[in-house]
Amino acid sequence: MDTDLRYVEGMFKNNTDLVTRALEGIPPEQWMRRPGDASNHLMWIAGHLIWARGAILRTLGSEWSLHWAKQFARGAKPEEIVQYPQVEEMRNTWSDACRELAACLSKATPELLAKPHDKPSFDGKLGGYVAFMAFHETYHVGQISYLRKWLGHGQLVG
To answer: DSSP state, 124?
Structure first.
């Protein structure tokens, strides 16, 4: 398998831009609204994306960490979180994680990406894990886009 990540980098760049635009103009009081009792709200999805990018960063060798990110891990429920970050902190942390991911991806060597990896991966290698995480993130970008429109802020694309 080709371990070149240029397409995956493009997906992350596109997702970065979409999420950043989607979060603009949403007032803090709307970040916790949910379209249904079993749905996630914008705050949880944004936190989950930050948690996921942090997982990628650490896998790529970054020492990036954030004390509150683990509460947004896979399987965590919005109602289990005692204290959410402030909206501005969430936006700023998203920006920081985006810059760090772009830097780490640009330095990732073919040897690093070819290493075996036991987390979800398209090919059992670290490069396949990074590609899987881009796919995972794109799923949640769709949710954020839907929530933005549901909250009355118009569609994100198109």
So the answer is: S
